[in-house]
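Section 5: illustrative case.
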């Protein structure tokens, strides 16, 4: 059981093929060191103010700091990375559209135990989605180096086809060791969990995930992104964070208007047939 690493020059079709087959892979050095540095600087005061988790699953010595769209302008490059969005569209192609599901800087502190092995799609009330229907495409960007010692995310490559089981353990996983600036991609079906941090440093990863637009987002983007910031974003970014219809008649506002008009203004009615991805 190994985790495939691809170069940043990999084509979307190749990345998608490995993701479909293994449920996870790493793209090495996908973002430059300067962008990583800016994101870390922008997020530092918010991370410092974030308390540890309230339970063992969240991690009592782990800080989960969200609202990246509003708090870190430099993170927009990662959220909208063309390779990631291309692969996401291929994986979630059976839905009319997809949206930003959550943005979260995950900081695993020293002496943190490993997280229980789980599937991210269990967040949808443990609904049993069909085995061949993907509802999430997830990324974790390495804001620091990821090593087995400092708590690199652990995964079970190929496990997306297994039945639901709460009994999987860390011994069945491999660590997603990767250099700073690399990106781990994994589906909502693959078993994984944060690794134990046995080092004296904090492991920091930027968790950016996408889900099909007919499901609820884990992070409420409409409240996480204040209106005054939303007004500065271009239309494509607004649609990505959720200002669009999620399917034939999901998410319109008042008199069947396009939700984008809540930010841009206008009174035109929306055509249900206009559901371009």
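Designed sequence:
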């Amino acid at each position: 059981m190994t985790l495939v690493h691809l170069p940043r020059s990999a084509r979307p079709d190749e990345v998608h093929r490995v993701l479909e087959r293994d449920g996870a892979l790493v793209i090495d050095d996908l973002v430059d060191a300067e962008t990583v540095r800016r994101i870390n600087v922008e997020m530092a005061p918010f991370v410092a103010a974030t308390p540890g988790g309230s339970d063992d699953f969240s991690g009592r010595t782990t800080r989960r700091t969200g609202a990246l769209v509003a708090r870190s302008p430099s993170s927009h490059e990662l959220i909208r990375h063309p390779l990631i969005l291309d692969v996401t569209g291929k994986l979630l192609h059976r839905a009319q559209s997809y949206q930003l599901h959550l943005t979260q800087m995950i900081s695993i502190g020293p002496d943190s135990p490993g997280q229980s092995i789980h599937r991210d799609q269990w967040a949808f009330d443990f609904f049993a989605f069909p085995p061949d229907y993907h509802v999430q495409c997830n990324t974790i960007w390495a804001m620091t180096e990821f090593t087995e010692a400092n708590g690199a995310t652990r995964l079970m490559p190929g496990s997306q086809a297994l039945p639901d089981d709460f009994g999987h353990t860390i011994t069945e996983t491999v660590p997603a060791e990767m250099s700073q600036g690399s990106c781990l991609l994994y589906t909502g079906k693959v078993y994984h969990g944060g690794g134990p941090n046995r080092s004296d440093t904090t492991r920091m990863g930027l968790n950016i995930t996408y889900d099909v637009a007919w499901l609820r987002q884990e992070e409420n983007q409409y409240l996480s992104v204040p209106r005054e910031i939303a007004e500065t974003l271009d239309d494509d970014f607004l649609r990505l964070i959720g200002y669009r219809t999620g399917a034939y008649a999901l998410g319109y506002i008042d008199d069947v208007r396009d939700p984008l008009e809540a930010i841009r203004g206008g009174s035109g009615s929306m055509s249900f047939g206009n559901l371009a991805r």
